[in-house]
Write a structure and sequence with these properties.
The protein has about 70 residues and is mostly helical. It has 3 helices and no strands. The chain is about 75% helix and about 0% strand. The N and C termini lie far apart (about 50 Å).
């Protein structure tokens, strides 16, 4: 396994095209991780408070059209 320093040096040595491909791969990977975390949190009920806040806001007529 490479160290962070070795990875940084490898990234710095990429051509612009290679860097663009790597950056897109990395961003896609981050979004996939984020999506999995949101799904896990939703399934575990850790986001239920958001639904309750929305219901409370609707019932209290504190919502506005976007």
């Amino acid at each position: 396994m490479k160290t962070v320093e070795e990875l940084e040096m490898a990234v710095d040595s990429l051509t612009q095209e290679e860097y663009s491909r790597f950056r897109q791969w990395f961003l896609d990977r981050e979004w996939e991780r984020w999506d999995r975390k949101i799904e896990e949190d939703a399934e575990a009920g850790r986001l239920d408070f958001l639904l309750q806040e929305a219901v409370d806001a609707k019932n209290g007529k504190r919502l506005r059209d976007l």
